[in-house]
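Q&A log
Question type: sequence-to-structure
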Amino acid sequence: MINEYTKALTEKSAEGSLPSELQRLRKYYKDLGIPTILDESLSELLLMLKIKNAKNILELGTSTGCSGTAMLLAQKDAHLTTIEKFDKVQIEALKNFELFGVSDRVTSLLGDSYETALTLTGEYDFIFLDCNKASYSRLLPVLKNLLKKGGVLFTDNVLFRGYVSGEATPPKIYNALTRKIRDYDELLASDKDLITCFFDVGDGIAVSYKK
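Response status: OK
Response body:
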C-alpha cells in the first residue's frame, strides 16, 4: 500500500484544497461511519479533474454530496449530474449542495445507478464511479458510451482493502465482491478503447482515458 510518508503528504494536500467547512463535514460523516472517499483518493480525483478541465461531470454514488461539492468547488464552471440510490441520502446531499452554494450546477437523480445511467443521453468529459462496487462491470459499457472521446473515467475502490491485490485475505463475506471488483479491473485493463492506469492510493483508484 502507499507508504505512510507519501500518504500523509497527500492527505495534507487534499485538506488544503478544501474549505474548512467541507473538511469538517467530511470528518463528521466519517465519524458516523458513512462511506466517504478517502482524503488521498479525493486529492487525486480533484487533480485529474483540474488536468482534464472537466465541464460536464457524471458521478455515480452521490452519498452525502461531499465529493460532488468538492468537484464543483474545484471546477467553478462545471455541471454535475449525480446518481444516488437511497432517497434519505439524496436529501442529505441536496442540503449540502445548497449549503455550499453549488446546487444550481447540480442535476440530482434518484435511482439504481445502472438503470438510471441507461436513461442518460448526454456526453460527459469526466465520470466518477463510486457506487455499488458489485455493479462496476455491468456499468462499464454504459459509461463508455456516455464518455466523450478524450474523456476520463475515475474509479474508486479498485483494490478494496487490499483484498483484490492479494495483500490481505478477505473474510468469506467479501469473497464474491472481491471477485467482482477483480473482474472489473481486468475488464478495464484489457479494454482496447481505454488507456487505464491503476494507482495504489487510498482504497485503490483507476484512471481511464477514452481514446
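Response note: The chain has one domain: 4-210.
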